[in-house]
Protein 1
Amino acid sequence: MVNTRAVDRTGAHVTVNDVSKTYGLRGDSVESIRSVSFELPQGEFLSIVGPSGCGKSTLLMMVAGLLPITAGTIKVGGQPVAGPRRENSVMFQTPTLFPWRTVLENVLFPIEVFKGDLGAHKAEAIKLLEMAGLQDFKDRLPEQLSGGMAQRVSLCRALITNPELLLMDEPFSALDALTRDDMSLELQRIQERFRKTVVFITHSIREAVFLSDRVIVLSPRPAVIVRDLTIDLPRPRTLAVQETPEFNRYCAEIRAGLGR
Amino acid sequence: MNTPAVPQPRALPNLPRSTNARATIIPAVVFLAIGLAWHFAVTLLKVPPIVLPGPAAVFDAIVEQRGLLLEAAISTLTEIVLATAIAVVAGFLTALAISISPMVRRMVFPYILMTQVVPKVALAPILIAWFGIGMQSRLILAFLIAYFPMVINSLAGLLGTNESSVRYARSLAASELQILLKVRFPAALPSIMSGIKITAGVAVIGIVVGEFVATDRGLGKVIIESTATMDTALTIAGVVIISALGLLVLGALEVIERHIVYWQPGR
Amino acid sequence: MNMTRLAERFTASWPAIVLGLALLAAWEGLTRGLGLPQNLYPAPSHVIWSLFARADLLLAHAWLTFYQTVAGFLLSVVIGILLGWAISKWRLLFDSLYPVIVVLQVMPKEALAPLLVLWFGAGTLSRMVLAFLIAFFPMVINTALGVRGLNPNMRSYATSLSCSKWQFFTKVEFPSALTSIFAGMKISVTLSVIGVVVAEIVAGRDGLGYLLLFASSRLDMGFSLAILLVLALWGGALFAAIAWLETRLLFWRH
């Protein structure tokens, strides 16, 4: 398959080197991740797939600087990770919008925290909401939104700071299947436009293959990498690509990696 | 209509707690520390015993006056248990009646909620004027204070039954009585037990305040009289014993609850 | 808009209103009809009459009760929130103080009234202290619950923005805890009234609690019930004030 997307390869953006994670004290410890290494070039969309509890969220949190690394190193942009970075944006499974703020105020929240220029960013926020189709809801409160809409607002909020690295922890898991498809298309559109470096956690194999340039498969705990495949499907991808044999071959390979 | 809009003043704290050795050792250490601090503060600062006696003096008072205190404690405890029992039964039956008839509910429930913001302890002097000094006034006072929370909690339980459970029972052609006994009532038990604990708690207050105003018997009387004679050690002893009684009653109810509502996690 | 809402709720509650009026009428009819002595078994009309006939006496003592209640309540809110926040932040503080708080919450603090009168005198201080002691625990507990109940994903998100501790407290923790704090305030305000009344009864010097004692001892039950009515209205007004404040501040809750 011809790769119609040019991926920027001027050095890796994220380097994970022989990273492991252990919880608990000496006698009672749980080895969550045994040894994981990979490099992520700028602008690449990486999905990490694995069974429940295998540590994929843990890995993401370590890249985000929200969890300490037990052994190994993680570098982002050439610098070792020492804590959360403002150049990252993290998205969680649930929207976690603040119920006391309007949609627009929620999207601008990171700017407030960074003490940036709210006025200057307001137009940008509205543009993002337009792109998500939510401009009419900018003055509504989160409780008036459906799950899918709230998660879209959450995505806008993640993009307002123009992050270098987008870290997403199963962001569509809590949504119903139809909304999930819509969100996948939307995320793909955004990625076509902004070409961020993305680490995307999911336990949906089809979602991973559909969205990503590359998929890493983790084993059950203690996690190691069992597959690292490049997804060579042309972009932009429509939902129809999910019926093609190439797509299903990738899915089968991932499923094999998971031992199914 | 599940949780009532009016809050329950005496609901017990339901904070998540660590259930390990830490949970028993640290409190014990803390209480010991408080006791020691009290003792040293009183001796080092040379506080006059009329103002604040040390723990040793309070202990002596308890031992010396154990006859008086025991008699008073029994009187108070009896009244507490009586008032609680009557309030629980009456409260539950009222809630049952209300739950069955929506019209009764619309008529009566707003008033029941409203009584929760009224300081019912203020009834004490009024009841004594009408019914005289004695157990009857105290029981009525405690009953009036304890009855309404029981109604509210029981009603919340009875009305909060999961409708799908009721629908399932109906699909088996169960009679309304069967549904009441086998579905609604067990589902209501956690709220009912909560209600009983709150009821007992406020009944204690009702009896004690009643004893303050109509001092013929009980620990309240001991407290009032000992403050008049400046026997502060005895006063504190009285307060300690009433608190202990309150804890005892609630502890007993917790044990009963764990047996009756055995299916609730985290209890 | 508000008038129609009010009218709606009025018409929806007609059964309760009808019952109330019926009971009042029955009470009035029985006491007057049976020729019962009005001092012992007053009719509602006599109660209202007493209210106005002795208005000056009532107001003088009522003012005292009112401001003691508010003072005790405000103190319990401020200290309760601070302490509740503190214990929810530090695990060790929580583990050590929680059992103390449970014991003290369960203890009938009204029993302390005579002791407090002994220590702080029969004046306003002892009553405000009792109101504070009774009202303070629900504030601590509800604040702790509110702070601890913060959605963990929200916490992670805020951490990922590396916001400062102050930003985190003002923009995330505090607004999120407000619902629980207001629930606590509703409870506390009711308990403040109880505390003040009990202390006034025990101290027996002034305030509505004392006035109640005074009127009842002279078997002037009309006036006693009038005082009770004032206390009930005061409790209701305080509660309504907090509820109103809640609808303004917590605008996002329906």
Protein 2
Amino acid sequence: MPNTSSTRTILLLGGGLLLLLVCSLFLGRYPTLSLMSPELLRTDEMAWRLVWGLRLPRLIAAALVGMTLAAAGTVFQTIFANPLVEPGFLGVSPGAAFGAAFCIVFLGNQAFLVQGFAAFFAVAGLLFSYALAIRMRFGGWLLRLVLAGIAVSALFSSALGILKYLADPLSQLPEITFWLLGGLWSITWERLLPILPVVLLALGVLLLMRWRLNALGLDDTTAFSLGLAPARERAVLLFAAVAATAAVVSIAGMIGWVGLIVPHLARRCFGADCRRSMPAAMLIGGMLTVLCDDIARCAMAGEIPLGILTSLVGAGGFMVLMTSGALHRAK
Amino acid sequence: MDDGLLRFERVSFAYPGSEREVSRGIDLAVVPGTVTAILGPNGAGKTTLLNLALGWLQPQTGMVRFEGRSVAEWGRRELGCRMALVPQRESAAFEHTVLETVLLGRSPHLGLLELPGDRDVEIALEAIARCGIVSFASRPVNCLSGGELQMVLLARALAQKPLLLLLDEPFSHLDLANKSRLLRVIRSLVQNGVTIILTTHEPEIAAAIATHLVLMREGQVRRVGSLDEVMTTPFLSDTYGIPVEVREVNDRKIVLWC
Amino acid sequence: MAKEGDGAMTRWDGFQAIVAQKPMLLALSSACVLLALLPLFVVAGELGNTSPAVSEHGLVVTDARGKEIRLPAPPRRIVITGKASFMVLDAVYLFPEAWPRVIGLGREGQGMDTFLSAVDPGYASKTTLGREAGPEQIAAAKPDVVLMKKASTENLGRSLEVIGIPVVCVDFETPAHYDRDLAILGRLLGQEERAKELSGLMRGIVSGIDAKVAGLDEAGKPKVLLLYYSNRDGSVAYNVPPTSWMQTLLVEMAGGHPLWKGVELGQGWTKVGIEQIAAWDPDQIFIVSYFTEYNTVERELLADERWNALRAVRSKNLWFFPGDLLSWDQPDPRWVLGLTWLATKIHPELFPGLDMKAEARSFFKNFYGIEGEAVEKTILPALHGDL
């Protein structure tokens, strides 16, 4: 695919995301399930409050969740030179889930506390995996990291199982379950604003270092000979990716498959060079999540957990992507 | 110091936690404008020597100097602008194109957050042209043949604009035509003043291109010197541990063995 | 494989195809998306925080969270939603004045629907919100106030408050909550007299029992075990409630000694095995079952040798907790019936000749203001358990 046209496509994608956000702002179940007329926004105070107080922060959160997971997925896949890893796999997602459940069961379901615990344990999961990988006595560094991630994830998952058993089935278990399935139903400005600096900063770092990311997927020696400090620079990028992931997971719960499938899709359409695939993945991820969240909040009277929808779309898309003929690799 | 672009001074190295020294007391000087071939059997410590030169491995005793300064003291990017490595092989996980891969050679010349500009693309394309791979510059690297990939890796190293080029077993996966093509490219580089160090376990390759020869066995340098001095029947037999015979055919040394 | 001699023309074509990369443009485009949203964050953040104007002379209610809620006038449109909203719904229906004001509710099962339809002919026509109704849907009903339990205030409650819909939290989990939350509802609905009357009725029943069991020392209190029989996925389990739940409190108030106090693992029902039950060696066992009929449970229990070996079973002290359309052991106004019943079973000598059917009739009359046909035809036929 020629690069001029892919640049244009990325700009189009950016415009598409903005357009989608604006349209979604008017879409909802108030007053009835339809696109709200801008007229109503001026005359009905409730409509105004809904749009500005709930829909806008929720839509921004949806876009950021998708952008972050897709960008972090691109970073993880490139650095681990493995197309099957996703941002949560180094103990990050199970850590966040455990932290949230722990807080819900033992410290009460206070939003900020749950959010804080999820973020804390997400990072703790990563650090734990890292420490374990350093101490592991065999295998290459990447293999050790992957193994450590699997072990730490299993540990957190079993701890989560115990917490689910302990939880009050009436008030706490549904909370934990909905959190595990992911959702943005409780997003307000109050919850979005604290994570905004972390997410924007981390996404900025990932975007700025995206060309360098290509070289970090090379062998250590080769990367070193190219003037890079492979271990340090990888740690910086991984940390930025995990920080942003932990932040979005702490407000949205487990949103599956975006971090795995979107980087693939972006590479398919825009080539493997992260200069193009990174921004493309971010935009596609943002659009996918916003679309899924529109369905989550509008399709049925109650909320459909967002994670279920992204997994459905993601896994379905993955099957299509993997079985359809190679788009630009015909040899 | 003007007695060599790269100098090894009594360098010893063992991997951490291992008793065995993979490099023992190496003394070596590489003169600018030469082609030095490091020859020796498998496991002789040839690749370790290259990694020591790069600064990727640091010797327990002794010192490696580049342009008179310890390699450890050089800044990463500074050194990357002067010394380049062509690794033995590389597996690509994703479908980066040849140009995208070669462009990575510009890394040491660019800042942490900088993206390659038009000038960098130009240099990368020059390197691609020099290696004769223009025709597939936009193909993804993970569907190239071994020979084609070797040329891409060489082009990437050339995009670094190095004074010293390290090649790790560059000929081992190539057929005769590709070998001859690579030889030609290396010769043209030498004419342009690039100093070359390459490892190989095939004496004929060394004989075809090297000006200087280093014979290695079990982590030690057995012999150093010009091609004519070192490429002799007794020395090679000693290095490989089997009887071999060096003969001259049409002004070129070949090695007989059985 | 490329040939070295590929001409200058080919090379030039290659250049043309590849050179045109505009990385800066990409960086800008993606940064723009983020930056374009930034000013919106700031503006909207301020807008989101504005609270609706409240008239000075309005109604002020302090709810179960201890939060002061200001309303311009007593609410005419009430929505009851959130988790386990049936507890709130049933309590709201203790105030006949409120019946027409309830405009939206989450349906909570057949028993509740049948019961409330018997109480209020207008019940069937009320808007049903889903179990997980979101703020938009609730807003569309245009409520003056939304009632919910504490567990829902963190997420749903907060969202509603952001868009300016007042949320009043009531919990109705324990007798003490009933005292507090009835007063909150009374104030909110302008029915403070009725709230006092209800609290008085409840207190009267509690103190009537307390007067008789208060004098007992620990030795005089039978060792009681209350078990919830669950049969999920075909695997039978017996569970004890946490210390703080209504069931435990009821046993204590009825003059029994709850054996399971302090064994709970978490904040829900805790599964216990037959060995633990045998080790406790209870004087009396009370069984609660919400989904399986007592006949089935009894048949199953008596077929089990280990159960037959228990002292409580041998001495015929195995009782099935009664209920009508809803069970009497739960945090529902019926807990006063459950308490009375428990007292007669735990201390039959202190409460001789108490007719539970008569107690039930007077309960529905006093608390829900219904008697006659509605009670006799709909509610009393549903009575079950060891009355």
